[in-house]
Amino acid sequence: MPAVRNAVVVGAGIGGLTAAIGLSRAGVDTTVLERRSTPDRLLTGGGFMLWHNALLALRELKLDEQVAEAGVEILYHEFRSDRDRRLARWDIAPEAARYGVPALGLRRSALNTVLMDAAGDCVRLGARCVGFEQDADGVTARLEDGGEVRADVLIGADGLRSTVREAMRKGHDLPPRYAGYTAWQAITRLPGEDAVPTGTFFNLWGRGGLRFLYMRLNDDEVYWDAITADSVGGSFDMLAKGRRDVLAEAYRDWPAPVPRIIETTEEDAILPIDIFDRPPDRCAGWGAGRVVLLGDAAHPMTLNLSQGAGQAIEDGVALTRLLAEHDDVSAAVSAFEALRYERVAGMISTAWSIGAMGRWHSRFRCAGRDLFMRAFFDSKGRRESYKQMMDVRF
């Protein structure tokens, strides 16, 4: 008999909602504690890629088709230089046919909406968890307002600076690792296939510690991400100029449509995010007794593989299944980490290495990087990327 009759999930992000949906559908009485107080504060964020592995995991919850309808299928992943030279172009459609699910570009809020609707009334907004206590019979989440929620298992899905993680480690934890660059994310209104064609994710690599990513989300909107290393971002005059102006200056000589994308973006739509991860560490487990971490609370990674959301979804599906299969919560928690650790550890390391190449500043090193990409990314790079991505473990 499964050991879990009720569960409490801390955090209504992608991983927490995925776990809550899976548990609820398995007959587990589930409560999601979310510190944000209104739904509109949850349904925010820019755009992102959701690869085949994430859609396969969502299929386990019968949500893949609904999510696919909310996004646009990505047919090509094109790598280019800041001198408008093609470095590689991956044809994604054959892989979509092979695995039976597409790769998508979509708004983060679109995915959150699907997950929130599926989770239903198990989400409690304005409920901030400040700690927990556990014993042989269960675990109690303590709330900021003095309330408590008792359950058989507590799932910490509360992000990079997780309260659950801090309480579980009792403050004995290394801080997140700063990657040395900032992602300036935005969505702009830019109609027209001539400006940005639908179905291609563009990944531009530049000199001087600059990168730029963009893709069309729908007929009217384009998502973009300007990634600036500290070596260049530290020179931005943010006192005299706004975000759009400093980025327009940094990317003024980049090939079309990059300058136009930035110029058409509203100032307030640009959100700078400093990028962090946590190095893989077998000594720092994801669980303790009846408490377990998932997603960014357990294993945050940089954005370079577009797998943060995908791995959180895989976590939610895997943990749901293991809690249903085991008659002991701690055994399920141990099995979850054993199943998932190597996969996410490899992705964390790969994503960190890719991000480090984007910080290169010298023309010589950047020219060598571009030459390497032209020689290997369409062949070995693509194969290795898919091998890692589709080694699904849930």
UniProtKB/TrEMBL annotation:
The GO molecular function terms of this record are: monooxygenase activity
Identify the keywords attached in UniProt to this record, alphabetized.
Answer: Monooxygenase, Oxidoreductase
Sequence ranges assigned to domain FAD-binding in this UniProt record: 7-168, 273-328
Check the record and name the SUPFAM superfamilies matching this protein.
Answer: FAD/NAD(P)-binding domain (SSF51905)
- Any idea what this protein is called? FAD-dependent monooxygenase
Q: In its keyword annotation, does this UniProt entry include Oxidoreductase?
A: yes
Extract the Pfam families matched here: FAD_binding_3
